[in-house]
Amino acid sequence: MAVVSSDGMVSDGCALKAVFFDFDSTLSMPQFIKRAGDYAVADRVELCMGLEDDEVFANFGGAARVGRIRETLERLRSHDVTLFIISLGVSRVIRHHLDVVGLGEFFASQLLFGQDSPRLARAGHKKAVLIQQLLQEHSMEPEDALFVDDSRTHIQLCRRLGACDVFQVEGNGLTPKELDALDA
Question: In this structure, how many other beta carbons lie within 10 angstroms of the beta carbon of residue 86?
Answer without folding.
Answer: 27
